[in-house]
Amino acid sequence: MIPAHPAASRGLEREEGLAPRYTDRRMSERIQIFVTGGTFDKEYNELTGELFFKETHVPDMLGLGRSLLDVDIETLMMIDSLQMTDDHRRLILDHCTASPHTRIVITHGTDTMEQTAAVLGEAIAGRTIVLTGAMVPYKFGSSDGMFNLGTALAFAQTLPPGVYISMNGRYFPWYGVRKNRERGVFEPKKP
């Protein structure tokens, strides 16, 4: 080991011949992750062919992605977003408001993500909230969910306060996005 590098006091170590590496998981602000279900967390019953919910896959996804972020994961509900009611959205709003964290990611079904984002966007200021989801369940192996979760976490760390939807590597402010159901993507809402 060579003498301490000036960056060592910031959580970096340098081994001889190697670049500095992060040793402290808390290099960035803690991020609250609220899980609400949606395609993101659906499982497939091979006997009946039905999709169902068991438990969230978010911890597995973070582990597989080798995430070093400091996160607090809380499951609020495990439902399809088509079943989401005003009471469910109020529960999400209440948890976002009560959270001690100013950076929040919400996993959500894509069918009504816009409605939940609007409820949050009209009521919350001073926090960066990013909603994300998946078009294909994580358990299918070909899901976009892991990529969407990763980009949502990155956007939650870098975007200014506001409410956003993040899908397919892009982000949109809550008031300027729509789901294009024909193409299966989110896009800017046309005025």
CATH architectural label: 3-Layer(aba) Sandwich
Tertiary shape: globular
Specify the structural class: alpha/beta
**Total helical segments:** 4
SSE series: EEEEEHEHEHEHEEEE
Question: Which stretches are low in confidence, meaning pLDDT under 50 for 5 or more residues running?
Answer: 1-15, 19-26
CATH class wording: Alpha Beta
Percentage beta strand: 25-35%
For the structure shown, list the relevant keywords.
24% helix; Rossmann fold; alpha/beta; six-stranded mixed sheet; two-stranded antiparallel sheet; 4 helices; 191 residues; globular
Fold topology:
Blueprint: E1 12-13, E2 21-22, E3 31-37, E4 42-44, E5 51-53, H1 58-64, E6 71-79, H2 86-98, E7 103-107, H3 113-123, E8 128-132, H4 145-158, E9 162-167, E10 170-173, E11 177-180, E12 185-188
Parallel strand pairs: 3-6, 3-7, 7-8, 8-9
Antiparallel strand pairs: 1-2, 4-5, 9-10, 11-12
Helix pairs in contact: 2-3
Give a brief outline of the structure.
The chain has 191 residues and is of the alpha/beta class.
Can you describe this structure?
By secondary structure, the chain is an alpha/beta fold. It has one domain: Rossmann fold, CATH 3.40.50. It is built from 4 helices and 12 strands; from the N terminus they run βββββαβαβαβαββββ. It has helices at residues 58-64, 86-98, 113-123, 145-158; strands at 12-13, 21-22, 31-37, 42-44, 51-53, 71-79, 103-107, 128-132, 162-167, 170-173, 177-180, 185-188. The strands form 4 sheets. A 6-stranded mixed sheet has the order 6-3-7-8-9-10, sandwiched between helices. Strands 1-2 form a two-stranded antiparallel ribbon. A hairpin with a 6-residue loop joins strand 4 (42-44) and strand 5 (51-53). The longest helix is centred in the C-terminal third of the chain and has 14 residues, at 145-158. It is globular.
